[in-house]
Amino acid sequence: MQRTLEIASKAPEFSLLGTDGLIHTLREYHSHRAVLLFFVTNTSYYALATNSHVIELYNEYYTKGIAFIAINAQKGESLKEMDAMKKRENLPWDYLYDRTANVISNYGVTTTPHYMVLNHNRNLVYSGRALENPLYPERSTSFELKDALEDIVASRPVRTPLKDPIGTLIEQEVAETALV
């Protein structure tokens, strides 16, 4: 069983193809104060339901120096499908394709969506969910990801560094899609 990257661990480097046709690495975001990595799929109801919330976070925190990078966590999806999703949903962040699932494995991601905040040294300072009710974001009363981003912007230690992600197990993605 793979183990999720531990808080304070150095984030593993990656080199992945994006929907823009370019190869992206973690290093290229060196000028940002922090990086929000989030692992998603085009078919997870949980990931799809939180898109509008994450777009709101992007609109608030990208200009404050936080880079947003989505990494597709499902082997069966194509770059073409990812690009169509990015355009359909008007997703403003880089959307990268982990074709071999090596990055997912290196970060220990088993659920989508899974959000990880890396500080300026690229150490993990938050791992978990975006909010407590991803299927109905408007019903949420706790927003741990937003709180973590706010802590980073305020140069404070992240108060709640770890929350279990809420979503779909990556191994179940194919079965969940078949039920639709």
CATH superfamily: Glutaredoxin
Computed Rg: 15 Å
* Structural class estimated from helices and strands: alpha+beta
Q: Identify the CATH architecture.
A: 3-Layer(aba) Sandwich
Q: Mean pLDDT, as a whole number?
A: 91
Strand order of the largest sheet: 2-1-5-4-3-7-8
List how many beta strands DSSP finds. 9
Enumerate the spans where pLDDT stays under 50 for 5 or more consecutive residues.
172-180
Please outline what is shown here.
By secondary structure, the chain is an alpha+beta fold. It contains five helices and nine strands; from the N terminus they run βββαβαβαβββαβα. The protein has a single domain (17-179), classed as 3-Layer(aba) Sandwich (Glutaredoxin).
Relevant terms:
180 residues, alpha+beta, Glutaredoxin, seven-stranded mixed sheet, two-stranded antiparallel sheet, 28% helix, globular, disordered C terminus
